[in-house]
Amino acid sequence: MALTSTMYAMTVSLAHVDRGVYEQLEFRMAMHPSESPEYFVARLLAYCLEYREGIAFSKGVSDPDDPTVSVRDLTGTITTWIEIGLPDAARLHKASKAAPRTVVYTHKDPTVWLRQIAGERIHKVERIECYRLERELIDALVERLDRRMSFELSVTDGDLFLNVANATIASSIQRISLGV
Fold first, then answer.
1. Dihedral sign for Cα atoms in the order 68, 73, 78, 80
2. What is this structure's pTM?
């Protein structure tokens, strides 16, 4: 018998001061059985950090050619391709060719990954933005993960403040150079 996805109902009060985005986000998110809680939380945070009109999660493992999260314009064209984790060079190459803006959010140590993709053929690699989410933030959010949850996320000068389950977690977003 196949395992089914676990559904989560999320309410996020987003105050992204750096970008001037102040929104109350309400959505449902599915965590596939093959998806780790850490990846799920990183995907959720990337969605919030990149929130703008036209943003959407992919259909998941059923459509592996799509970006994990994307932003599309009114014609349906991808304007931002967002990956989570440590995508291989071929995926980054494809993403960079498919969208004017490519962003990677990783919740893992990128040291080995950066060596693996160094020197690989990646279309316009210098334009790819890569950010590392601090492990403490990911672990703290995983610890408090609930099927119905609400939290507040504030971003100021690259610092994150997450208020969830009567706790405030402070963190930062680190920009990573792809070695170009």
1. negative
2. 0.93
**pLDDT recorded at residue 51:** 97
Domains of the chain: residue spans and CATH: 6-176 (3.10.640.10)
Tens digits of per-residue pLDDT, 82-130? 999 999 999 999 999 999 999 999 999 999 999 999 988 999 999 999 9
Q: For residues 82 and 146, what is the distance between their CA atoms, to the nearest angstrom?
A: 24
Q: What are the CB-based long-range contacts (under 8 Å, 24+) for 19-25?
A: 19/155, 21/51, 21/52, 23/51, 25/51
Token digits of residue 136: 């403490």
